[in-house]
């Protein structure tokens, strides 16, 4: 994977973003039509997709849902719409980040770099094992009860963060600091949306219990079984 795929129908904005990101070492491919963006992605393999919501041909939500079925890189949604419902829907459909426009170019660049750093894992990163549950960080693979579970970058990073401290309650603030290096502002719904997606994907253990529990007023806990996580 290399480069950035920018899907944005505002010609002036896309030109500014392309010039800025290219100037910082990231080759950028631009597409302004949603339907064509899906087709284009079949022939390129970018590290990051920057996806506007309001597009001709097919809106950003539709594009995100369709490409996430096969694209394993980072999807970052860019939009002037700030409704919580839109943000949660974007994250539910598989986006890794949701950024309100206008955004300062240097802030966008920092967010892109942060996602790419988290996606780059050293070969010695290890694995976590909880009985029938195994998380391979180097391969970014999750196996649960014999099933290999497909995950987005953001989903895997959140699961790893919870599992490496299995049995310990982690607050939203702690998770935001670990995952994005920022404090929880009390409004961001991204952690909650990803927890919901993880629960659906992981299902329940052989006793019918969810692997991730909500501890009211405190945060989330990964329920370890058969002792401590082993690397």
Q: Can you tell me about this structure?
A:
The chain is α/β, with parallel strands linked by helices and 231 residues long. The chain folds into 2 domains: 4-119, Response regulator (Rossmann fold), CATH 3.40.50.2300; 123-222, Orthogonal Bundle (Arc Repressor Mutant, subunit A). The protein contains 8 helices and 12 strands. The strands form 3 sheets. A 5-stranded parallel beta sheet has the order 2-1-3-4-5, sandwiched between helices. It has a 4-stranded antiparallel beta sheet with strand order 6-7-8-9, with helices on one face. Strands 10-12-11 form a 3-stranded antiparallel beta sheet. Helix 4 packs parallel to helix 8 (190-202). It is globular. It starts with a strand and ends in a 9-residue tail after the last strand.
Short characterization:
With 231 residues, the chain is an alpha/beta fold. The protein has helices spanning 11-23, 34-41, 60-68, 84-92, 105-119, 153-163, 172-180, 190-202; strands spanning 4-7, 28-31, 48-52, 74-79, 97-100, 127-130, 133-136, 141-144, 147-149, 169-170, 212-215, 219-222.
CATH class of the largest domain: Alpha Beta
Distance between the termini: 28 Å
Largest sheet: 5 strands, parallel
Q: Any guess at the CATH architecture of the largest domain?
A: 3-Layer(aba) Sandwich
Spatial strand order of the main sheet: 2-1-3-4-5
What is the C-alpha radius of gyration, as a whole number of Å?
18 Å
Count of individual beta strands = 12
Content of β-strand: 15-25%
Shape: globular
| Whole-number tally of structural domains | 2
Low-confidence segments, given as residue ranges, are: 226-231
The CATH superfamily of the largest domain bears the name: Response regulator
Written as H for each helix and E for each strand, in order along the chain, the element string is: EHEHEHEHEHEEEEHEHHEE
